[in-house]
Each structure stands twice: as C-alpha cells, then as structure tokens.
Design brief:
Elements: H1 25-34, H2 37-44, H3 56-68, H4 77-81, H5 84-90, H6 97-106, H7 110-117, H8 133-153, E1 175-176, E2 179-183
Antiparallel strand pairs: 1-2
Length: about 210
C-alpha cells in the first residue's frame, strides 16, 4: 500500500502465522523451562503406556498454557490449536482435547477411592483417598517448583522484613495499632503531626501528599 501522512508502509502478507493475540503465553512456557520443570516432569510423571505420541511434559505444559490463557475446559485447547501465530512461536502443536482428558483421567484410580471409603459406613460420603503414582509425580514437580523459585530469591540481597503491627516504617509516619502499613490519621509526607502539610500563618502554601504503603 502507498504511504500516507506518516512514514510507514503496510505490507500485506498472505500467511496466518504472522500475528497472534497470545504472545505472552510463550513467556509462561519459557519461565517453566527456565526453572527446569520440564525435566522434573520427565523425571517424575509417568502415565503413558507407550512411548509414542505426546510426552507427559508436553501435556502438562499444554494444561499450564491452557489455564494461563483462561481456558475453562479441555475443549478450549482448540482455540490455542487454531492460533497459527502462537504455534509458530512455540515451535510445536498442542495436544488434542481428548489427549489431555485421557492424561488427567490416568491420574485417577477408582480403586483408591473404594479403599478409602471401605472403613466408613455407607452414609459417610467424604473420604480422602491415597494419591496415585501420577499424582505423586505431579507433587514432586510442585515441590521442585517451590524449591527453585525460592532458590532464585537467594541472590545475596536481603529480603524485605515484614513489619510488626504498630511498628513505624523507616522514615515514615507511625502505623495504626493493629494495622501494619496504614499511617496514623493526619500524618502527611514531610509532616510530623495532625496539622502537618496544612497551610498556616507564616508557613506559606503547601500541598499535602499522603504516603501510601503496600
């Protein structure tokens, strides 16, 4: 197209994989892999009866991306499958909805539920079954995530200390009793009392600015 008033041109490309509205999802996947969770999944989660098809890592990553994209069910993976730009950024296709459904179902075992219910009378419906091997593997992955995120925080810099209730913030006004981080009424930035920051005789105009604490 010919240029208009601004110095740019528009090039029409007959390809569907040149644009996506979900460019943030690859960053989710990149973070997951930067924490080494892809290897943790491969080490601890074993559901497939055969070595063909999508790996457990690919399935777990697909579920994570589906949740990050706001999916509410396995069938919503079709929306991501249809996004050619997203699949191009990821460099792979998504597993099907049936594949994800079978993967999650493999983490469930009716025998464990029956064993958990056996010691109790029939009218008692609440029970906590033991975890299957697949769920135990996912628990290992969750533990690895917590440990690796915590390890990323140990960079030699002190972490912020939580303030005790009523303890004044450094360089700031005193906090309300029982409400840490909430300044007492009337304490303004640069002031020391209830009338600080207001205009008074001989003080000249001033603009009260409230200090906000997280």
């Amino acid at each position: 197209m010919s240029p208009g008033r601004l110095p740019y041109t528009v090039e029409v490309v007959e390809r569907a994989d040149t644009v996506t509205g979900r460019a943030g999802l690859p960053l989710v996947l990149e973070t997951l892999r930067a924490l080494g969770l892809d290897q943790a999944i491969a080490d601890h989660v074993h559901v497939r009866a055969r070595q063909s098809g999508d790996s457990e890592t690919a399935k777990v990553e697909a579920v994570v991306l589906l949740l990050a994209a706001g999916g509410e069910g396995f069938d919503d993976i079709r929306v991501l499958q249809a996004d050619a730009g997203l699949t191009r950024l990821l460099g792979r296709r998504f597993p099907s909805a049936d594949t994800l459904r079978h993967f999650v179902s493999a983490c469930h075992d009716d025998q464990w539920i029956l064993q958990a219910q056996a010691p109790w009378p029939p009218d008692r419906v609440a029970s906590i079954p033991a975890e299957t091997a697949a769920l135990q593997g996912l628990a290992h992955v969750t533990t690895a995530l917590v440990h690796r995120v915590a390890a990323e925080g140990h960079d030699g810099h002190p972490r912020p200390r939580r303030h005790d209730p009523g303890e004044p913030h450094a360089g700031g006004p005193p906090a309300l009793p029982g409400r840490p981080g909430v300044p007492a009424r009337g304490h303004l930035l640069g002031g020391a009392g209830p009338r600080a920051g207001r205009r008074g005789p001989g003080t000249g105009p001033s603009r009260p600015v409230w200090r906000r604490f997280p």
